Amino acid sequence: MAVTPNYGWPVPVATDLVKDGYEAIADLGDAIDATVFGLPASGMSLINTTTLSAVSSQSFNNVFSATYNNYYIQMSLDGSTTNQDVNFRLRVSGADNSSANYSRSNLFQQSTTVTGQSLTGQTSWISVCEVISTMRQYGDLIVFNPFLTQYTGAISNSLAVTNGATYQERTTYGSTITTSYTGFTLLVGTGTMSGTVSVYGYKI
Question: Which of 29, 42, 65, 116 has its CA at a distance of 20 to 30 angstroms from the CA of residue 135?
Fold first, then answer.
């Protein structure tokens, strides 16, 4: 008998006795089944969905791991006050990174007006979504490499609809350290937020 070069699975060779070849094929089938069963499917896999109910902050622990490099976070939120930013902090071992090593660059469109802003040395990623008491806000965030010991970056889009008018914001985020993170916290400066947040892993 021989083994495959990558996984070391048993395979029969031409000189094997019939019974040895049978055993090798049976072992090979068991090994393939066990390995494939443990692999995530391609595309997005739901990791966690959390319901928020009138909270000023919400932490999500152990949602980033070695299983995926990149993550998609979908937010559907409203708030107790008007126009409050929902900010984002990376976390590990149950503690937020609140140091001034976050940056962002964004474009905001309202009617025919477009404005931009670039910030560095922040203590969170500012405005990954917003919460507004008069309407539901929707936002998504793609986070790149949070678990890897590389610089973590992200891209977000947010949308608000009120009385038939829409407002949109496109933002990119960065960090200046290469910590391996396992989770994050969403927080608002004033009031509370409610809604749902779902975290998906990207499998390529």
Answer: 116
